[in-house]
Amino acid sequence: MMEVEKLGAGYGEVSVLTEVSLRVAANETVAVIGANGAGKSTLVAALCGLMPARAGRIVHAGTDVTRLAVHKRVRRGIGVVLEGRHLFGTMTVRQHLTLGSLGARTPQEGEKRFGVDDVLMLFPFLRERLDDPVELMSGGEQQMVALGRALLLQPQLLILDEPSTGLSPLVVKQIMGTIGALRARGMGILLVEQSVALAAEVADRAYVLSVGRVVHEVHKGEWTRFLADDKLVNTYLGG
């Protein structure tokens, strides 16, 4: 679904990512884990088009999207929920979901289309809050709105940037359950997350990012061995 080959990106004269390569398939949840400053948010920005790549390429569903603008990547099937959610405080839940529908990709024949009812089935609590401004909602409720808006873009690949930040354990559990439901629908998920325990709970595989480079890959079935390697965890993830 997505292949990233030797991606480089940065700010001004500062290089943040160096030759980052990774892949995400359909029906797969892949995590990118790393300590603060590892380059995770820069990677998200480069993948969704908010930051230009300096080197390498990004291929999604067989198309090179490296130089495409953000909205064109969305139309190609790449959705993202950025850290901080980036909602409009005075706008209602309904208006945010409408925005997602307006910018949606046209699903291919045979693909399951996300509708507002599908979002409300995933997040039933939102059904009674449709006409409430999001600024009156908790962080967890806002995260549900941001996820719902992204799903209505009809993504094939959904990138989640630190979705657990600032949320209660109960809400995090619900969000992680949603990831499982999306994968069951055939969606690819790229989970960018500082919490190793959370990534281990939901991801099939993971890439460990450190100082802008992929320094380790956790293959399917290797989570237990990886988490037991104290030297590896302490060196790259801060314990």
Describe this structure in words.
- The protein is of the alpha/beta class.
- The protein has nine helices and ten strands.
- It has helices at 40-48, 70-75, 93-102, 116-122, 139-151, 169-184, 196-202, 223-227, 230-237; strands spanning 2-11, 14-24, 29-33, 55-60, 63-64, 78-81, 157-161, 188-193, 205-210, 213-218.
- Helix 3 packs parallel to helix 5.
- The longest helix is centred in the C-terminal third of the chain and has 16 residues, at 169-184.
- It is globular, with a radius of gyration of 17 Å.
- 38% of the residues are buried.
* Terminus-to-terminus distance: 32 Å
The dominant shape is: globular
N to C succession of SSEs: EEEHEEHEHHHEHEHEEHH
Rg (CA only): 17 Å
Order of strands in the sheet with the most strands? Answer: 6-7-8-3-9-10
Residue share in helix: 25-40%
The total of helices stands at: 9
Structural class, from secondary structure content? alpha/beta
Q: Overall pLDDT, averaged?
A: 91
Query: pLDDT below 50 for ≥5 consecutive residues: which ranges?
Result: none
What percent strand? Answer: 25-35%
Count the beta strands: 10
What does the largest sheet look like? 6 strands, mixed
What keyword list fits this structure?
single chain, 9 helices, alpha/beta, six-stranded mixed sheet, four-stranded antiparallel sheet, 239 residues
Structural topology:
Layout: E1 2-11, E2 14-24, E3 29-33, H1 40-48, E4 55-60, E5 63-64, H2 70-75, E6 78-81, H3 93-102, H4 116-122, H5 139-151, E7 157-161, H6 169-184, E8 188-193, H7 196-202, E9 205-210, E10 213-218, H8 223-227, H9 230-237
Parallel strand pairs: 3-8, 3-9, 6-7, 7-8
Antiparallel strand pairs: 1-2, 1-4, 4-5, 9-10
